[in-house]
TrEMBL record:
It catalyses: 7,8-dihydroneopterin 3'-triphosphate = 7,8-dihydromonapterin 3'-triphosphate. This is Dihydroneopterin triphosphate 2'-epimerase. Its EC number is 5.1.99.7. One of its GO terms (molecular function) is dihydroneopterin triphosphate 2'-epimerase activity. It comes from Marinomonas hwangdonensis. The keyword Signal does not apply. CDD domains: DHNA_DHNTPE. InterPro entries: Dihydroneopterin_aldolase (IPR006156), FolB_dom (IPR006157), GTP-CH-I_C/QueF (IPR043133). Transmembrane segments: none annotated.
Length: 121
């Protein structure tokens, strides 16, 4: 049996410059990030060794730093960058990232974009 583990960073709320309107370029906006990472977990739970697991704390710190310290015109760019961060972890075989902009549209809670990627190890 080779079960897959799925880590979910749930509703990470950050502020960044995102958008192409003048007001969006001048003022940070809220974004809500969800990231899912999947990996084959048997080595991690058989050995109880952190080196055989995905370090979600490190990934979360990278997501925070990248989001807060850069400017983005499009949700597509920010989401793709964060997906790349998730896929850099050695054990990750699949990742999905959703970035939402709350209040981007009148009468809507948010607008979001989701990207995913997978690889064979």
């Amino acid at each position: 049996m080779k079960p897959n583990a799925q880590i979910h960073i749930n509703n990470l709320r950050l502020r960044t410059y995102i958008g192409f309107n003048d007001s969006e370029k001048e003022n940070k906006q809220d974004v809500v990030i969800n990231a899912w990472m999947q990996y084959q977990a048997s080595d991690a739970y058989h050995t109880d060794d952190v080196n055989n697991a995905v370090n979600y704390r490190t990934i979360c710190k990278q997501i925070i730093s990248h989001t807060e310290n850069n400017r983005f015109l499009l949700l597509e760019k920010l989401t793709a960058d964060l997906l790349e961060i998730c896929m850099q972890a050695d054990h990750v075989t699949f990742a999905k990232v959703e970035v939402a902009k709350p209040h981007a549209l009148r009468f809507a809670d948010s607008v979001s974009l989701t990207l995913s990627a997978s690889r064979e190890l």
